[in-house]
# Entry
Amino acid sequence: MDIAKQIVDQRILGLIKENPSIFTESEEKNISKAFLMLGVSAYLDLDIPDTLQYITEGRNDGGFDAAYIVDGADMQLNVILFQSKYTRNLDSDTNFPANAVEKAVNTVKCVFDPSAHMVLNEQSQTKVNEIRSLILEGHIPYVTFVMLNNGLKWDETGDSYIKNTFGNQPQVKFVHYNHTDIVKYVTSPKKINTQLTLSGAAIQENFNYKRVILGKIPVTEVFSLFEQYGDSLLEKNIRRYLGKNAVNNGIVETLLDAQKKQNFFFYNNGLTLVCEKFAYNGLQQSNWIVKLDSLQIINGGQTCKTIYQTIKENPALDFSQIFVLVRIYELSDDEQTIRDITYATNSQNPVDLRDLKANDEKQTLLEKGAAELGFTYRRKRDYSTAINAIPSTVAAEAILSVWRNKPHIARYRKNDLFGSYFNEIFGNVNAAQMIVAVQIFRYCDAVRKHHSGEPNRDAIRPFETHFMSNIVGKLLLEQKQIEYKNIDHKNFYDILSFFDENKQNLITLGETLLYKMLSEYFQKEAINELDGRTIATAFRRYDLLERYITNPTWWNSHK
# Structure
C-alpha cells in the first residue's frame, strides 16, 4: 500500500474528528471536503482554516470545487480552480477521470465568458460573479486548473480534451496534484543540504562579515534541484507561484526560442539564494562545485518554477546551454537579514509577506496577548488541522474591515495586507481589539453562507462579509457606548459576551442598513433584480463607505 495515501487518509480523519462543526454531512461528503481542504492548503501554501473561504463544492458547483482569485498587477487576473476526486480504496491506482477533465475544460470555457449562462450554487455563483465583473472591467484572466486526487494523472483522452480546446493558449494551464504532492509539502525538510555546479568563472567576496558568490548556472541545475526538493526550496520565498502569467510566458517563450534562449542570462534578473554555509575548491579556476548547507531561494522563485515546468514539459529539447545569474549569500542563521533581503528583492512584485512579518514585534505581542485571553493566534503558517485558531491572515482582514474602515481593501487587496497596509492594520492594535474584530468577521462570514428567505437580503449576502463586519463593528461600539481605542483586556470579556448575546440583532440591523445603502446607490429597491456582477462591483469601491457608513448625516438618520 502507498504510504503517502495512508498519511493523507489519516490526516483527513484527524481533520474531521477535530472539527465536527465544519464537517456536518455524510461520511463520504465529509471525507471529500477534508481532502479538498488539505489539497488546497498544500497547493496554495495556506493554513487549513484559510481554505474554507475558497471552497465551493456541492451540487451545481459549476465544475470546480474551490476557487482562488487574485487581482494582480497590470490588469492581470490570476485564478486557480480546483477539482477534487478522492477514493477510499487506498490500493487503487486509477487515473483522474477523463470525463472529469472534459468537464473542467467546459468549466473554463463557461466561467471566463461573461455571456455564458451557468446554473450555480451560491458559493460558486459568488466566485463567478467576482471573476466576470473583473473581466468586464478589462482584466485579462490567467487560469490554472488543479486536478486533485489520490491517484494517477489523467490519461491520453484527458490530454486530448485539453489540447483540442486550448492548444498552446498561454492563459490556461492544467496541473495534476495528488497525495504524494501533499505529503511532500507537509513533510518537506526544514534544511536542504545540497550542491550546485557553477558554469565558467565566478566571483567570491567577503563583504560586511558576510560571504557572497556571484556566478551562473545552467537552467538544468534549477530543474534538478526542483525535481529533488520541490517547493521546499522556496520555504522562505514570499511569492506564491500562480501558474502562467505575462512574466512566466516571457520566460517560457525565451527558453523555447532557438535564437533568444542563448541570451536568457541577459534577459532574466537571476536568482538569489541564501545558505548557512557554502564551500568550494578555491584553487579551481572555474566551474566550481559549491556545497550548500540549509539552502533556500528567496528571490527568483517564479523563474525557477517556470524553468522547471518548461523543461519537464519538453524532455526532447536541449537546455544545457541556457544559463541564469545566481547570487549566493552565506548568512549563517541570520533570520532578520534574510527577511530584509527577501523583502528588498521582492518589493516590486505582488507578494505574500506574512512569513516575513511573522517575527515582527507587533505579531509576537498579539500572540502573547491572545494566549492570555484564552485564544490561539497563529503568526506563522503551520500544518495544524484545527480550524478555530486565529491565523494572522484572518486577523488582518478582520482588523482592516472592522476597525480601519477599509473593507473593500481587505476583500480585494489581500496580497497587500502584510505589505503596504501592515502598519496601518497592526500598528496600535491590542489582542482584545484583534479578537473582537475576528469574532465579528467570522460571524458575518458564517451568516453569508445561509439564506434569510428575503430576496433582497439574499442577493446581497454573498458579497457582504467585509462591509457587514464594518457595520456590525460600528453598531457594537455605539450600543456599548465605547470607542474602539478603549477596548482592552479589562473589558474584553464583557464586550465579547455582549456581542454573543446580541449578534443576531446586530446583523439584522446591519443588513437593513446595507440594503438601504445599496437601494440608494443603485436607485433601485429590488436589489435582487440586479446582476451579481453589478453588486460585486459596488463592494470593490469606496463609495459605500464615503456616502453612507462614514457619513455621519446619513448614518444617524437611517440607523
